[in-house]
Amino acid sequence: MLNEARLATLLVDLLTSNEEAVDLRTTHLRFDIELLADRLVGATDWLIQYPDTRDLRIGYFGASTGAGAALVAAAERPDVVGAVVSRGGRADLAGSALTQVRAPTLLIVGGHDTQVVDLNRRAGAEMRSEVRLEVVPGAGHLFEEPGALEAVSRLAVGWCRRYLGAAGTAISGSR
User: Fold this and answer.
1) By three-state DSSP, how is residue 170 classified?
2) What does pTM read for this prediction?
3) CATH numbers and ranges of domains, the chain
4) How far apart are the two ends of the chain, measured CA to CA in Å?
5) What are the residue ranges of helices labelled H in 27-164?
6) Cα four-point dihedral sign 100, 104, 110, 112
């Protein structure tokens, strides 16, 4: 839906194939927020060095632990990142970076994912930027219920259009 909204998108694998194989066994790399954030910052720095993309407003879309990494990366590149969207994300994993995020942030959580709703409420309360928490009724952590991902997509597109304008790029990190 981001592409349909005419927003440029870049999907970034934040772990290499070998790291992904290790993480499937150990699950430790998906929680290495600094590593994931460094890779998002690297992708951002790569984008802003080219004439065709340097003037685009950049937004991050992160899910689960990738949302924590997106917030850390947004704190590290405040002049470049214009919006953050978190889907079922662990914003709390951004730790002390939460207070440094300047980008408007949309936290989307499934209504049945009560623990993550609570974690996002607390993380949002620590942030100084504009923050909105949207709870998708009837949705779980993975938003597998009918219509749940469509609701997430509509919310994300609206947020990106509002804060990135017509000339924006959404970077989505995947582990």
Assistant:
1) strand
2) 0.91
3) 8-174 (3.40.50.1820)
4) 21
5) 33-47, 65-76, 114-126, 148-164
6) positive
